[in-house]
TrEMBL record:
Belongs to the FAH family. InterPro entries: FAH, Fumarylacetoacetase-like_C, Fumarylacetoacetase_C_sf. This is Ureidoglycolate lyase. One of its GO terms (molecular function) is lyase activity. Keywords: Lyase, Metal-binding. Pfam families: FAA_hydrolase.
Length: 282
């Protein structure tokens, strides 16, 4: 199943894709794709319904919202691709590097990326995003981790490198600006997607910047979910960005950071593409 949300900001409606171009709204069955509804069995309710009885619509021209509404947590794993760690000049970490983004920096997949005032170091990071499907805490083994995953989506972990790296303190400051996490266009449920060896890529104005596969992950999907559950309770709708491959802007010499007026295309094999325009803060 491919889960989506459509509508203007603040008025999105939950939907399910029935083809590449058509969907059905499911707000007659659930209120939204969010934590409360997922905890109450939203996925099971929608799966058990006869969606052919619902009127389909063409998605062309509609705004796509983030596929999950108001997640409790937006968690990130840093330095999790072997070649990205190498381009950063850092040794692969002995355990997953975990940091947070402000959840309200989450936006729709094709919404604008707003470059903050005076920023000259806004960067792009394609990431495979895990969406949690049920509460997970102190999982006993990696083997059970997949049972707690709702599905997967495309995350664009936009980063402001000056605030992330050059200022004192933790990375969260460079990660949490408004619009700094486009996500979508859908969540592909775990029964329809195999995440362990898929292509992930990012282009800026048509120039290929990142092009890798999730097989280059240092810590895989199951390990990440198991590991995070050892010190943090995961709730339905929580998002984990699993890390970015080589080719980020700050890895070039000189760096290739984003500026207003560019188009960023972020794609993952088996999920699709998202397209973001960069605009200056006003």
């Amino acid at each position: 199943m491919k889960i989506a949300r459509f509508g203007k900001i603040g008025s999105e409606r939950p939907a399910v894709m029935i083809s590449d171009n058509k969907a059905v709204y499911v707000d007659s069955l659930i209120k939204d794709w969010n934590r409360d509804e997922l905890e109450a069995g939203a996925l099971k309710k929608v799966r058990s319904a006869d969606l052919s009885l619902l009127e389909s619509f063409d998605i062309a021209g509609l705004r796509i919202g983030s596929p999950v509404a108001r997640p409790t947590k937006l968690i990130c794993i840093g330095l999790n691709y072997a070649r990205h760690a190498a381009e950063s000049g850092m040794t692969p970490p002995p355990e997953p590097v975990v940091f947070m983004k402000a959840p309200d920096c989450l936006v729709g997949p094709n919404d604008d990326i707003v470059i903050p005032p005076n920023s000259t170091a806004t960067d792009y990071e394609v990431e495979l995003a895990i969406v949690i499907g049920k509460r997970a805490l102190y999982l006993k083994s990696e083997a059970e981790a997949r049972d707690y995953i709702l599905g997967y989506s495309i995350g664009q972990d936009v980063s402001e490198r000056h605030w992330q790296i050059e200022r004192a303190g933790q990375w969260v400051k460079g990660k949490s600006f408004p619009t700094y996490n486009p996500m979508g266009p859908v969540i592909v449920t775990g029964d329809e997607f195999e995440p362990d060896d898929v292509r992930v890529y990012c282009t800026v104005d048509g120039e290929k910047r990142q092009d890798s596969r999730t097989s280059d992950l240092i810590y895989g999907i199951s390990h990440i979910v198991w590991y995070v559950s050892q010190f943090m309770e995961l709730h339905p709708g929580d998002i984990i960005n699993t890390g970015t491959p080589e080719g980020v802007g700050f890895g070039f010499k000189p760096p290739k950071y984003l500026r207003a007026g560019q188009e960023v295309i972020t794609g993952i094999e088996g999920i699709g593409e998202i397209r973001s325009k960069t605009v200056a803060h006003s």
